[in-house]
Amino acid sequence: MNWSDLRMHFVETFSILRLRVTFCVWAAVLGVAVLAGPFGSYDTMSVPIRSAYWAAVISGGFVIGFSARAVMRAVFGTRHPILFDLGASLFVGVLLGPMIWVLRGWMDPVLGHEMLSLGRITLHTALITGGVFVVRRQIGAEGPVGYWTAPEPEAEERTRLHRRLSCPPSTEIYCLSAKNHSVEVATSAGVEILRLRLTDAIAEMEPVKGLCTHRSHWVAFAAIAGIERESGGKMFVVLKNGGRIPVSRKYRSNLENSGLSDHFETSAQDC
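and the corresponding C-alpha cells:
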C-alpha cells in the first residue's frame, strides 16, 4: 500500500457519502435507533438527548466505516475478502468503540463512564460492524460476493484504474468515455461508472497503450477489432465487444500515426 493508492480509495469511497441513498440509509438508521433506544438508551435518555446521541454515533460510524473500507481496499483490493471484512470490523471497533464510550458517559444522565465497560463496547461495536460488512458482501455491495471463491489471477498489465473497479484484475479494459462528471469504463466484464475526470482515468491506465479518438473517448489498442467509415466522412473504431466509438476529425491523426488505420484497411482489402 502506498499513499497515492490510499488517497485514491478514500476519494472513491467518500464520494458515496454524497449520494442520496447514503443519506436515506443514515436517516432510516437514526429513526430506528431513536424510536427503539437500543442498549438501554430508551430507558436512560429523553427523546432530544437520545436523538442527539444516536445522530453523533451513527454519523461517526458512517465516517469511520467508510474510512475502514478505503483502508482495506488499499491493503487487500478485492483479494482476501475474509481479511478485508475482519480488518474493517476491528478498525471500526477500535476507533468507534471509545467514541461511543465517551459520548454515552457524557450525554447519558444516568450512566457515567465508571459504569460503562470500554472493552465490552468496543467488542460489541466490532461484532455489529462485522455483521454489516458481511451483509454488504452478500448483497453484492462489495466484491467479490462470498468468501470461498478462488482468487482471480493477477493480470500481466494490471493498471491503477483496475483498483477502482469491482471486476477482477484480469478483466480487460476496452475504452473510457466521459459522462458528465464521471467516466464510463467498458470492460470484458461489463460497464462501470467511476466518479473522476477522463484525463485522470487515462493517466491511471498505464502501462496499457491506447489513444484518444474523441475528446470524450479513449480506446485501448488491444481492444480495437476494426475501423468503419460511413458516408459523410464519419469514422468509428469497432471494439471487441461490438461497441462503436466515434473518431472525431481532430483526433484522426492519432489513429493514423498509430498505424492502426492502415492495418485494418489493408486487412479489409485482403479479405
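(Above: one complete record from the training split.) Residues 3-138 form one domain.
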